[in-house]
């Protein structure tokens, strides 16, 4: 589904990302971990054509993302709060995104109905603009908005941060379900090793912009990751 | 502690985004400050002589005193809009070991260093100096001057007490409007009573104690108010408005574009900054009054053409020049969404065209100045729709300054979304119509000028698609730069 080749990004000759080859098959739940500055968000931004690669390219479903815009209809993302429109209410925002993705009001409503649990009564009918919601609630709205319009690729940057425990558990269920039963390719980054091993079939560790580990998730993965990251702290 | 606060304040000032800009902007801003400061000083200085000439039988100080009430009311109204207790500044100090009173004194004290207060100072000081030079009694003048400053500060602090309630604002507005109306229709001249009060302040210098006492009281009130409720959800909270249920379904007829159109209207209605721009553009409607009433400009039709552009183009010029900055806060999202740039831009264009149309209707009273003027406004409207709207959008492709939507622009820090490119792009918007009118006017006649001006607009309208293709390409090309600039932290 997503093929990365010889991709690099440098700012003022300082390399922040350098991935020789990375292949993410369709329907995989893919986890990206790494310390601050490892290049996770940079990689996601390149995937969304928000920044230009210094060299190399990413191909998504046969579309070169830096050349054509044809990847947009089947891709959606929530990177940070700047993906929200602060002066809209949550509903207005969902309908707006729905409009952009050719979903009418009832399509959106049907989707939202599935996430009533996830919203926990704090998102819909609040008479509040998104900018006045708490960080966690903003995140909930942003994540669900990324699910509108049956995307085939969903990119979530640190979706677990700021969420309350109940919502974290529910989000894990949602992500697993997307990949397993709907064949959606989900890309997630996280600082929480436990969550990411729970959710992702495959975990890639980035360090200073390079892939240092590429693991198929199993029982030993969490231990291995913990060892890797604690080792770094000592060294 | 206060010393450290002042140190921090200085750093904030020096390192604020508007000083981090290029030299050109700094110079422009400096000139701007000089200009406005100069106007104030000039008005204050010349007021005495002007009044003396216009109303020779009255003492200028009396005339000024009679009108002071309007000055102060307007002052309060403006403050209500533009000035808020700078609460964000104190948040970091709430949890460190500093006495609350110290923080509150600092919080309140620093509000006295505000543009509005300086404006008053700049107006009253030169006027008072002129009075003294003109052999008015020194004690009286100085006490009067101190009284004026005290009242200014009283307003400064009153504003914070009433700032969170809209009803106060509207009642204030009503009172002011009725004062003006009553005076205009000679029913009841309220200025006399206030005038007497202000005159008394001048004639009996010891009365200066009154406004000073008032200042102390209102400061104390503010202090107590903040102190009694010094919590994030209390006195130093910021207003959170309840969401309005705006549906705007009637816009659906615009098809795909309506998605953005609806959004843009919400943007304007729900954010402080665009609301301000909206009001500004309303003021442009009155631009004609400045030019059409002056004999000097009667024989300079090119200047009149210039004015006509402004009458219908206020919104277009002031809102349009900040496309796409208005969407800077969520531009990344828009760019990763499944949208053609075209629709996004077209929505902005419709909005501007609509505004020109509304302005034109509102400009109907200009018929009073004759059909020629009115036709000129019409030609100007055509030009605005067919040419200026496109130039504005073109300029937007080069505009990479993020705008904070819900932060009101402060006077003089309004460089948020202002750069030299804008200025350069702005020139043809004003010079082109003058030229288009003036050349055929000189060569043929007045009507030919109007025709050419109007037709240029029609021409632009005809080639709308081609022009939009060009604009779209330009935006597409600058995409990465724009995204990077918009996501820069301020």
Could you please describe the fold and organization of this structure?
The complex is a heterodimer of chains A (235) and B (490). Chain A is α/β, with parallel strands linked by helices and 235 residues long. Chain A has helices at residues 40-47, 90-100, 105-114, 116-119, 135-145, 165-182, 193-199, 221-234; strands at 2-11, 14-24, 29-33, 55-60, 63-64, 75-78, 153-157, 185-189, 202-207, 210-216. In chain A, the strands form 2 sheets. Chain A has a 6-stranded mixed β-sheet, with helices on both faces. The model of chain A has no long low-confidence stretch (mean pLDDT 91). By secondary structure, chain B is mainly α. Helix content of chain B is 72%, strand content 0%. Chain B has 21 helices and no strands. The longest helix of chain B has 32 residues, at 23-54. The chains are: A alpha/beta (235), B mainly alpha (490). Chain A binds chain B through residues 48-52, 72-73, 75-77, 79, 82-89, 92, 96-97, 99-102, 126-129, 131-132, 149, and chain B through 240-243, 259, 263, 266-267, 270-271, 329-333, 335-339, 405-406, 480, 483-484, 487.
Residues in helix, % of chain B:
over 70%
CATH class of chain A: Alpha Beta
Approximate strand percentage of chain B: under 5%
Write down how many β-strands of chain B occur, each being a DSSP E stretch of 2 or more residues. 0
Annotation, overall tally of beta strands of chain A: 10
Give the N-terminus to C-terminus distance of chain B in angstroms. 27 Å
How many H/I helical runs of chain B? 21
Mean pLDDT of chain A: 91
Order of helices and strands of chain B: HHHHHHHHHHHHHHHHHHHHH
Strand order, biggest sheet of chain A?
Answer: 6-7-8-3-9-10
- Shape call of chain B: globular
Query: What count of structural domains of chain B?
Result: 2
Low-confidence stretches of chain A: none
Summarize the biggest pleated sheet of chain B: none
Task: Report the CATH superfamily of chain A.
Answer: P-loop containing nucleotide triphosphate hydrolases
Write the element-wise H/E pattern of chain A from the N-terminal end onward: EEEHEEEHHHHEHEHEEH
Calculate the terminal CA-CA distance of chain A, rounded to whole Å.
37 Å
Please give the most extensive interface between any two protein chains, plus how many residues each contributes: A-B, 33 and 26 residues
Major beta sheet summary of chain A: 6 strands, mixed
The CATH topology label of chain A is Rossmann fold
